[in-house]
User: What shape does this take?
Amino acid sequence: MKKIIIALLSVSGISLLLTGCGGIEADLVTRPADVSAFSSEDQDLVALGKQYWSDPSLSSSGALSCNTCHMNNAAFKDTFKNSYPHFVQMTKAKSGFEEVDAEQMVQFCLVAPMKTDPLPWDSKKLAALAAYTEHLQKAYAESR
Ligand code: HEC
Assistant: This one.
């Protein structure tokens, strides 16, 4: 009995560690193995992603878009110079990821700073925002 209680306590302790302090469940921002990404011409996705990047209907409040925080590369740290996947301080601190790819970063900013649900993993919107993120990352690396 004692052992069971100790086991239960340590499991809840671990989940507290993961979700406490504004933590984000890693599963929420990890592509399920059985769902493929939407695919289309990269150019089309980048153009569409650019529109969504400034769309405040993406946030739960309807007041924030990606561009609110990231206009002219604002809020990007030095790690954004590296091609994906790469280490990002915020996703390490909140979910324990050693590295993330572009679509995970999109999902992460939706769930954490924008306080909304992640996009469906097979959605055109996610593919578009991820493609635009990759595009921004390359331009950012070239500008440094
Ligand atoms: C309320 C502010 C806020 C909003 C809104 C926001 N983000 Fe972020 N985002 C951040 C912060 C803070 C970081 C820096 C994280 C770090 O580097 O530790 C960041 C980092 C990033 C990065 C770069 C991380 C890297 O180094 O690779 C990408 C890409 C990104 N956000 C995409 C998005 C997208 C897409 C949206 C819209 C869906 C969005 N963000 C909305 C705050 C925000």
The chain has one domain: 35-143. The helical segments are 2-19, 42-53, 66-70, 89-95, 102-111, 124-143. The two ends are 59 Å apart (CA to CA). The domain at 35-143 is CATH 1.10.760.10 (Cytochrome Bc1 Complex; Chain D, domain 2).
